[in-house]
Specification:
By secondary structure, the chain is of the alpha/beta class. 50% of the residues lie in helices and 9% in strands. A hairpin with a 6-residue loop joins strand 1 and strand 2.
Length: 313
Amino acid sequence: MKANTSRWQAAAPAAAWLTLVLLALSAQQVLAGPTDGAAPPSNRAAEAAQAMPRPALWRVRLNGGGSAWLFGALPYARPGETTLPAYVQRALAGSEGLASEVRMPPDKLAAARLIVGMRQEGASFKGGLDPERSRRYQVLCSERRLPCEQLDAMPAFFTLGALSKLLAVQQGLNPETGSLHAVHQALKDKPFLELEGMEASMSLLRELPATDQLALLDRLLERQGADGVASYEAWLRGDVAGMQQQLSETAFSPATHERLLTQRHRQWRDKLVGLLREGRRLFIAVGAGHLGGSDGLDALLKAEGFEIERVDG
Protein backbone atom coordinates (compact mmCIF):
# COMPACT_ATOMS: atom_id res chain seq x y z
CA MET A 1 0.00 0.00 0.00
CA LYS A 2 1.38 3.40 -0.96
CA ALA A 3 2.32 5.57 2.00
CA ASN A 4 1.03 9.11 2.19
CA THR A 5 4.41 10.72 2.70
CA SER A 6 3.23 14.31 2.31
CA ARG A 7 1.55 14.13 5.72
CA TRP A 8 4.47 12.25 7.19
CA GLN A 9 7.30 14.68 6.53
CA ALA A 10 9.34 16.08 9.41
CA ALA A 11 7.52 19.31 10.26
CA ALA A 12 9.20 22.61 11.02
CA PRO A 13 9.16 23.64 14.69
CA ALA A 14 5.77 25.04 15.70
CA ALA A 15 4.15 26.17 18.92
CA ALA A 16 0.59 26.20 20.20
CA TRP A 17 -0.52 28.55 22.92
CA LEU A 18 0.39 26.33 25.87
CA THR A 19 3.88 25.80 24.52
CA LEU A 20 4.24 29.56 24.23
CA VAL A 21 3.14 29.99 27.82
CA LEU A 22 5.68 27.42 28.99
CA LEU A 23 8.37 29.02 26.88
CA ALA A 24 7.52 32.34 28.45
CA LEU A 25 7.88 30.81 31.89
CA SER A 26 11.29 29.35 31.14
CA ALA A 27 12.88 31.86 28.77
CA GLN A 28 11.27 35.29 29.17
CA GLN A 29 12.34 37.19 32.28
CA VAL A 30 9.32 39.43 32.10
CA LEU A 31 7.07 36.45 32.83
CA ALA A 32 9.32 34.57 35.20
CA GLY A 33 8.25 36.30 38.39
CA PRO A 34 9.63 35.44 41.84
CA THR A 35 8.36 32.32 43.48
CA ASP A 36 9.18 33.34 47.06
CA GLY A 37 6.38 32.57 49.43
CA ALA A 38 5.07 29.79 47.24
CA ALA A 39 2.80 27.35 48.96
CA PRO A 40 4.64 24.11 49.75
CA PRO A 41 3.36 20.92 48.12
CA SER A 42 0.53 19.32 50.07
CA ASN A 43 0.86 16.04 51.98
CA ARG A 44 -1.31 14.49 49.30
CA ALA A 45 1.16 15.66 46.66
CA ALA A 46 4.09 14.19 48.60
CA GLU A 47 2.28 10.86 48.89
CA ALA A 48 1.52 10.85 45.17
CA ALA A 49 5.17 11.53 44.41
CA GLN A 50 6.17 8.33 46.22
CA ALA A 51 3.76 6.12 44.26
CA MET A 52 4.72 4.37 41.04
CA PRO A 53 3.31 6.50 38.20
CA ARG A 54 0.63 4.79 36.10
CA PRO A 55 -0.28 7.35 33.41
CA ALA A 56 -2.86 6.26 30.86
CA LEU A 57 -1.60 4.66 27.65
CA TRP A 58 -3.75 3.02 24.99
CA ARG A 59 -2.82 0.51 22.28
CA VAL A 60 -4.53 1.36 18.98
CA ARG A 61 -5.09 -1.43 16.43
CA LEU A 62 -7.26 -2.16 13.41
CA ASN A 63 -8.45 -5.75 12.92
CA GLY A 64 -5.66 -7.11 15.08
CA GLY A 65 -2.96 -5.42 13.00
CA GLY A 66 0.18 -3.65 14.18
CA SER A 67 0.06 -1.42 17.21
CA ALA A 68 0.12 2.32 17.48
CA TRP A 69 -0.03 4.11 20.82
CA LEU A 70 -2.10 6.92 22.27
CA PHE A 71 -0.72 8.75 25.29
CA GLY A 72 -2.06 11.63 27.35
CA ALA A 73 0.93 13.78 28.30
CA LEU A 74 1.46 16.77 30.57
CA PRO A 75 3.92 19.64 30.07
CA TYR A 76 5.13 19.71 33.68
CA ALA A 77 6.21 17.44 36.52
CA ARG A 78 7.67 17.62 39.98
CA PRO A 79 11.46 17.76 39.97
CA GLY A 80 13.04 14.33 40.15
CA GLU A 81 9.89 12.35 39.35
CA THR A 82 9.74 9.68 36.67
CA THR A 83 7.08 10.57 34.11
CA LEU A 84 7.60 7.73 31.61
CA PRO A 85 7.30 4.31 33.31
CA ALA A 86 8.69 1.19 31.67
CA TYR A 87 5.54 0.28 29.71
CA VAL A 88 5.50 3.74 28.10
CA GLN A 89 9.21 3.49 27.28
CA ARG A 90 8.62 0.12 25.58
CA ALA A 91 5.89 1.66 23.44
CA LEU A 92 8.20 4.52 22.50
CA ALA A 93 10.98 2.10 21.55
CA GLY A 94 8.65 0.25 19.17
CA SER A 95 7.30 3.37 17.46
CA GLU A 96 8.47 4.62 14.08
CA GLY A 97 7.29 8.19 14.48
CA LEU A 98 5.60 10.75 16.69
CA ALA A 99 2.31 12.59 16.21
CA SER A 100 1.67 15.51 18.52
CA GLU A 101 0.08 18.94 18.66
CA VAL A 102 3.41 20.77 18.46
CA ARG A 103 7.10 20.00 18.25
CA MET A 104 8.99 20.31 21.53
CA PRO A 105 11.05 22.27 22.22
CA PRO A 106 9.73 25.02 19.98
CA ASP A 107 11.77 27.46 17.96
CA LYS A 108 12.45 29.91 20.77
CA LEU A 109 13.20 32.90 18.56
CA ALA A 110 10.04 32.44 16.51
CA ALA A 111 7.96 31.92 19.64
CA ALA A 112 9.44 34.97 21.35
CA ARG A 113 8.59 37.07 18.30
CA LEU A 114 5.05 35.78 18.41
CA ILE A 115 4.74 36.65 22.10
CA VAL A 116 5.90 40.20 21.42
CA GLY A 117 3.56 40.42 18.45
CA MET A 118 0.56 39.49 20.57
CA ARG A 119 0.90 42.57 22.75
CA GLN A 120 -2.00 44.95 22.20
CA GLU A 121 -0.98 48.56 22.61
CA GLY A 122 -3.46 50.45 24.77
CA ALA A 123 -5.25 47.29 25.88
CA SER A 124 -5.61 46.39 29.56
CA PHE A 125 -6.80 43.05 30.88
CA LYS A 126 -7.26 44.45 34.39
CA GLY A 127 -8.98 47.57 33.08
CA GLY A 128 -11.75 45.50 31.53
CA LEU A 129 -12.76 43.84 34.80
CA ASP A 130 -15.65 44.81 37.03
CA PRO A 131 -14.62 46.40 40.37
CA GLU A 132 -14.97 43.25 42.50
CA ARG A 133 -13.03 41.00 40.09
CA SER A 134 -10.43 43.73 39.67
CA ARG A 135 -9.97 43.92 43.44
CA ARG A 136 -9.61 40.15 43.83
CA TYR A 137 -7.26 40.01 40.84
CA GLN A 138 -4.99 42.69 42.29
CA VAL A 139 -4.93 40.89 45.64
CA LEU A 140 -3.87 37.65 43.94
CA CYS A 141 -1.17 39.40 41.93
CA SER A 142 0.20 41.12 45.02
CA GLU A 143 0.04 38.20 47.43
CA ARG A 144 1.51 35.69 45.00
CA ARG A 145 3.95 38.20 43.49
CA LEU A 146 2.84 37.58 39.93
CA PRO A 147 3.99 39.75 36.99
CA CYS A 148 0.48 40.91 36.17
CA GLU A 149 1.50 44.39 35.02
CA GLN A 150 3.84 42.97 32.40
CA LEU A 151 1.05 40.72 31.11
CA ASP A 152 -1.69 43.36 31.14
CA ALA A 153 -1.45 44.20 27.41
CA MET A 154 -1.48 40.55 26.30
CA PRO A 155 -4.63 38.81 25.04
CA ALA A 156 -6.79 37.48 27.85
CA PHE A 157 -6.20 33.80 27.05
CA PHE A 158 -2.42 34.29 27.19
CA THR A 159 -2.54 36.31 30.42
CA LEU A 160 -4.72 33.72 32.14
CA GLY A 161 -2.70 30.80 30.80
CA ALA A 162 0.61 32.34 31.86
CA LEU A 163 -0.63 33.16 35.36
CA SER A 164 -2.12 29.69 35.76
CA LYS A 165 1.21 28.10 34.87
CA LEU A 166 3.15 30.44 37.14
CA LEU A 167 0.87 29.46 40.01
CA ALA A 168 1.49 25.80 39.19
CA VAL A 169 5.24 26.47 39.34
CA GLN A 170 4.75 27.98 42.78
CA GLN A 171 3.04 24.72 43.75
CA GLY A 172 6.21 22.79 42.87
CA LEU A 173 5.61 21.81 39.23
CA ASN A 174 8.42 22.24 36.70
CA PRO A 175 7.33 23.34 33.17
CA GLU A 176 10.43 21.85 31.53
CA THR A 177 10.46 18.27 32.79
CA GLY A 178 7.02 16.88 32.01
CA SER A 179 6.08 13.75 30.09
CA LEU A 180 5.37 15.76 26.93
CA HIS A 181 8.97 16.95 26.80
CA ALA A 182 10.27 13.46 27.61
CA VAL A 183 8.28 11.86 24.77
CA HIS A 184 9.52 14.41 22.24
CA GLN A 185 13.09 13.91 23.41
CA ALA A 186 12.80 10.12 23.11
CA LEU A 187 11.57 10.35 19.50
CA LYS A 188 13.44 13.47 18.40
CA ASP A 189 15.15 11.65 15.52
CA LYS A 190 11.98 10.00 14.20
CA PRO A 191 9.47 11.43 11.68
CA PHE A 192 7.05 13.93 13.17
CA LEU A 193 3.41 14.59 12.29
CA GLU A 194 2.04 17.95 13.40
CA LEU A 195 -1.59 17.67 14.45
CA GLU A 196 -2.18 21.38 14.90
CA GLY A 197 -0.39 24.47 13.68
CA MET A 198 0.41 27.62 15.57
CA GLU A 199 -1.82 29.92 13.54
CA ALA A 200 -4.87 27.69 13.93
CA SER A 201 -4.54 27.47 17.70
CA MET A 202 -3.90 31.21 18.03
CA SER A 203 -6.99 31.99 15.97
CA LEU A 204 -9.19 29.76 18.12
CA LEU A 205 -8.04 31.21 21.41
CA ARG A 206 -8.17 34.83 20.31
CA GLU A 207 -11.89 34.30 19.73
CA LEU A 208 -12.58 32.98 23.22
CA PRO A 209 -15.87 34.64 24.27
CA ALA A 210 -15.75 37.16 27.10
CA THR A 211 -18.02 35.01 29.28
CA ASP A 212 -15.58 32.11 29.06
CA GLN A 213 -12.64 34.40 29.78
CA LEU A 214 -14.39 35.50 32.97
CA ALA A 215 -15.12 31.87 33.86
CA LEU A 216 -11.40 31.09 33.54
CA LEU A 217 -10.51 34.10 35.66
CA ASP A 218 -12.99 33.15 38.37
CA ARG A 219 -11.53 29.64 38.44
CA LEU A 220 -8.01 31.08 38.66
CA LEU A 221 -8.97 33.36 41.55
CA GLU A 222 -10.63 30.49 43.38
CA ARG A 223 -8.06 27.73 42.87
CA GLN A 224 -4.79 29.70 42.64
CA GLY A 225 -2.75 26.92 41.07
CA ALA A 226 -4.40 23.97 42.79
CA ASP A 227 -5.90 22.78 39.49
CA GLY A 228 -2.46 22.08 38.06
CA VAL A 229 -1.50 19.98 41.07
CA ALA A 230 -4.81 18.09 41.08
CA SER A 231 -4.53 17.34 37.36
CA TYR A 232 -0.97 16.13 37.76
CA GLU A 233 -1.85 13.83 40.64
CA ALA A 234 -4.77 12.40 38.66
CA TRP A 235 -2.43 11.89 35.70
CA LEU A 236 0.09 10.02 37.88
CA ARG A 237 -2.69 7.62 38.93
CA GLY A 238 -3.94 7.17 35.38
CA ASP A 239 -7.24 8.66 36.54
CA VAL A 240 -8.72 9.79 33.23
CA ALA A 241 -12.12 10.49 34.79
CA GLY A 242 -10.47 12.71 37.39
CA MET A 243 -8.73 14.72 34.69
CA GLN A 244 -11.99 15.03 32.78
CA GLN A 245 -13.62 16.33 35.95
CA GLN A 246 -10.95 19.01 36.22
CA LEU A 247 -11.62 19.98 32.62
CA SER A 248 -15.39 20.12 33.07
CA GLU A 249 -15.04 22.42 36.06
CA THR A 250 -13.52 25.16 33.90
CA ALA A 251 -17.16 26.03 33.16
CA PHE A 252 -16.74 26.60 29.43
CA SER A 253 -19.98 27.13 27.56
CA PRO A 254 -21.09 24.16 25.41
CA ALA A 255 -20.32 26.14 22.25
CA THR A 256 -16.77 26.86 23.41
CA HIS A 257 -16.24 23.23 24.46
CA GLU A 258 -17.32 22.19 20.97
CA ARG A 259 -14.95 24.67 19.33
CA LEU A 260 -11.90 24.22 21.55
CA LEU A 261 -12.10 20.46 22.05
CA THR A 262 -14.54 18.45 19.94
CA GLN A 263 -13.83 20.14 16.61
CA ARG A 264 -10.09 19.98 17.13
CA HIS A 265 -10.26 16.28 18.04
CA ARG A 266 -12.10 15.60 14.77
CA GLN A 267 -9.40 17.41 12.82
CA TRP A 268 -6.65 15.42 14.55
CA ARG A 269 -8.55 12.17 13.93
CA ASP A 270 -8.77 12.97 10.22
CA LYS A 271 -5.00 13.46 10.05
CA LEU A 272 -4.34 10.18 11.86
CA VAL A 273 -6.83 7.71 10.41
CA GLY A 274 -5.16 7.11 7.04
CA LEU A 275 -1.73 6.55 8.56
CA LEU A 276 -3.09 4.22 11.22
CA ARG A 277 -4.94 2.17 8.61
CA GLU A 278 -1.66 1.82 6.73
CA GLY A 279 -0.24 0.19 9.85
CA ARG A 280 2.04 3.06 10.86
CA ARG A 281 3.46 2.46 14.32
CA LEU A 282 2.79 5.96 15.59
CA PHE A 283 3.20 7.17 19.12
CA ILE A 284 0.46 9.78 19.48
CA ALA A 285 1.09 12.17 22.36
CA VAL A 286 -1.52 14.85 23.06
CA GLY A 287 -2.47 16.83 26.12
CA ALA A 288 -4.06 14.50 28.65
CA GLY A 289 -7.24 16.57 28.71
CA HIS A 290 -7.90 15.60 25.09
CA LEU A 291 -8.53 11.96 26.03
CA GLY A 292 -11.52 10.44 27.79
CA GLY A 293 -15.18 11.30 27.50
CA SER A 294 -17.53 10.81 24.58
CA ASP A 295 -15.70 13.29 22.35
CA GLY A 296 -12.10 12.52 23.31
CA LEU A 297 -9.61 11.56 20.61
CA ASP A 298 -9.66 7.95 21.84
CA ALA A 299 -13.47 7.77 21.49
CA LEU A 300 -13.35 9.23 17.97
CA LEU A 301 -10.75 6.69 16.86
CA LYS A 302 -12.80 3.87 18.36
CA ALA A 303 -15.81 5.08 16.38
CA GLU A 304 -13.67 4.71 13.22
CA GLY A 305 -13.29 0.99 13.91
CA PHE A 306 -9.99 0.93 15.81
CA GLU A 307 -9.50 -1.26 18.85
CA ILE A 308 -8.56 0.94 21.81
CA GLU A 309 -7.07 -1.06 24.66
CA ARG A 310 -5.82 0.47 27.90
CA VAL A 311 -2.26 -0.56 28.80
CA ASP A 312 -0.72 0.09 32.21
CA GLY A 313 1.99 -2.45 32.66
